[in-house]
Amino acid sequence: MTTLTEEQTPGLSSKTALDIMTHLHIVLKLSKVYEPTNSNFVERLGACFQSLRQAFQTDTEVEIDIRRDAFFVNKARMKFNVANYLIYKSVFEEFLAREIGTMTFAAGLDEAELGRFLAFLAPRDASKGVSFERLADEFERAVFPHIRLKKIPEEVHPELSEKSAIPIFMMGVYHLKDMFEGERKAMRIHLTRRWVQSLINHLISHESLLIGLTNIKNFQEYTLNHSVNVCILSLALGRRLGLNRPELIELGVSACLHDVGKFDIDDAVWNKPGKLDPGERALMEKHSPYGAGRLASRTQTEGVPEAAIEVALEHHIKPGLGGYPRYLERRRTHLYSRIVKVVDYYDAITTKRIYRPKTFTPWEALRLMKEVCAEEFDPLLFKTFAEMMGVYPVGTLGALDSGEVGLVIENNPLPGFVTRPLVKLITDPDGRKIDGPAVDLAEVDPDTGRFRRTILKTLDPDVYGLQVADYLIDRAQ
Ligand SMILES: [Fe+2]
Ligand SMILES: [Fe+2]
Questions:
Q1: Model pTM?
Q2: From ligand 2's centre to the CA of 173, what distance in Å?
Q3: Which of 56, 224, 251, 307 is a Cys-bridge partner for 107, taking CB atoms 3.0 to 4.6 Å apart?
C-alpha cells in the first residue's frame, strides 16, 4: 500500500511531511487529555519536535495549509489513502475547530515553545465560543516567536466539498459510523440526505471515479464500507433506470440503511470463520426484520423514508420469493429492494470476508451473477447493472497483448467498444511495476490499422500483491 505522498518540493520529503502530520495528529489529541508535564505527552512532544527539526534541515519553515479538502505542506499537496485518512481527517478537524487555515513553524523553534503552543491551543476551540479573532488576540499576547497562524479562508467550507470524490466517500463511512453506533441516538437522516445529494451531484460528472472507489473494501468496519458502496452503486443504477432526483435521494438513503439491522446482532455471528450452524444462520437472517423494525420506529420522528423500511426487510428476497425473510404473501418486492439486491450481492462477493473462501474479481463477479441471475435477481435490473459496470468493470486488472498489465479506470461509453476501456498501465512489458499513463484501448496504430492494445485475460490482483483501491483513490483526488 502506498503511503502519504505529495507532489514533491525540492526540500521536504514526503516521508518527513507524513511524519509531521502523524505526530501533530497525536500531540493535538494528547494535549487535550494530559497536562503538559505528563510523561506520555512529553515523549510524544519530543517525537513531534524531532519531525519538525528534520524538516528544518532543508527548509526554513514548515507551513501547513488547508484548502478545501486538501492539506498542503510547504505548498505541496498531500495525497491521502485508506491507510492515512484518519490522520488527515483528525488534523483537518483540529484546524477547522479553531478556524485555522495555515499553521507555520519556523526554524529556531524549540521543544518548549512547541509544548507551550499545544497547551495554549488545546482548550481554545470554536465549540467553546472561541472565535479565530479571539484566538489570534490571545496568541499574540502569549508570544510564540516561531509560530504563525492564519485564519481559514471563507471558501474552505467545513461541510462537504463538491470538489473531490474521495472525501465524500470517506465522510459517508464516518457519517454511517456515527449514525449506527448509538441505537438511542437520533439518526440525523437530514445529514444522510445531504450526503446522498453530494453523491448524486458527483455521479453526474464523475461516475467512473465513484464506481472505482467502491473497490475500497473493509475500510473501518465491513458493514459501513459496504453500505457506502451499496449506496453508490444503487444510485448509479437508479440513474440508468431514469429515476428522478427525489427518487434517487430516497433510494440512496434506503441503500445506506439496508443492513442497519446487523448492529442488533452479535459480531461473533458475522465474523465467524466457516459455516454458520442453523441457529446462527437464523439469527443472521434476522438482520432484515431487525433493521426494518429499527427504521419503522423512526419514520415519524426522524424522517426515515418509508422505502428504507421495505429495503431493509426485502433486500435478500429473490424474485420467486426465495431468500429471506420468507414472504407468505406473493407480491413483488419494492423496486429499491430489487436494486439493492443486485448491488449488495456484487459488493458482498467482491469483498474479502473471513467466512468466504473465495473473493471474486469484478469481472468474475459479473460472470457468476449472470449464471445465477434467473434465480437471484430481477433480470432487467441485472442486465442494466451489467451494462453499467461494463465487460471489464472499473478495478479490473487485465493482461494486455503488449505484455503490459493495465488497470481498468473508465469504461468506454461507445457501443461496440465495450471491451476497450481506458486503462492505467501498471507494469511494463517485462513485468516491472510502473506508474504508467492512462491509455485508451480503443486507440488504433495508424501503421498497422490494428488496436494498439487489447485485454487478453483478467488477473487476480492478490496474486500480484496489488492494492487496486489505492490506484483508484489516487485518481479520485
Ligand atoms: Fe443484508
Ligand atoms: Fe448488505
A1: 0.77
A2: 14
A3: 56
